[in-house]
């Protein structure tokens, strides 16, 4: 039982990272109806920027770990958000009025471009990071098994909960959130009533990239190593999480991320780790057979 609880904690930690990335997918899809397949590479760029920021702060003598993480978080979010803005302006905005496959092809091309750009600039080798957050918090014991949780796992879950609550308030209570919901329902009508659609879409990409940046920082300090290819697998899992939870739903994206993290952790602990991805996608298919719109997705009504 104690081992099972340990795997639950590991799954929630991993699922929190997937959920943060998945929110970026679902926000963009909700507004423009397009899957941003370059979003995983934006997460990867955020991980590299956070690694560079943490190493530079260490060289500058910043010894306080909370200060270093906070500064690295701000720098990573700002620079990665700029990447998200540039990607939207170059790869998607010129094709917004084109046929539906054009932005999709552009997204795949941008994903390959960013992946190879980072490989050229940073090299193909794995980039390690010394442990930043160490220590564990004791949770008691179950029988002879001592339960504990790593400090970094607590930080990841807390940051995820805070950001999820913040973005839910952003969408439901602010002018930008109202503009996003208006664009989701009918972009043309939103533009007619005064909503700046281009600005709303650009800010959606910016906020999605900032969330991916936070996920990149958390991933880096949790695993301690990154490479130019992490965006592909993380992006694929996050996209799966968005579909599982219901593409277009913020709570659904987070729920899907947590479920995939739990499935991976429990399957790896109790079965063959090589087939954990098979288990994830098999469960996705089973759920979509009975819930085609995902767990929290809503049925779209086509206007005629």
UniProtKB/TrEMBL annotation:
GO terms for cellular component: plasma membrane. Keywords: Amino-acid transport, Cell inner membrane, Cell membrane, Membrane, Transmembrane, Transmembrane helix, Transport. The lineage of its organism: Bacteria, Pseudomonadati, Pseudomonadota, Alphaproteobacteria, Hyphomicrobiales. Its main location: membrane. It comes from Chelatococcus caeni. This is Branched-chain amino acid transport system permease protein. It is a multi-pass membrane protein. PANTHER family: BRANCHED-CHAIN AMINO ACID TRANSPORT SYSTEM PERMEASE PROTEIN LIVH (PTHR11795), HIGH-AFFINITY BRANCHED-CHAIN AMINO ACID TRANSPORT SYSTEM PERMEASE PROTEIN LIVH (PTHR11795:SF371). Belongs to the binding-protein-dependent transport system permease family. LivHM subfamily. The chain crosses the membrane at residues 12-35, 42-61, 67-87, 99-118, 147-171, 201-222, 254-273, 279-297. One of its GO terms (biological process) is L-alanine transport. CDD domains: TM_PBP1_LivH_like. GO terms for molecular function: L-isoleucine transmembrane transporter activity; L-leucine transmembrane transporter activity; L-phenylalanine transmembrane transporter activity; L-valine transmembrane transporter activity. It is found in: Cell membrane.
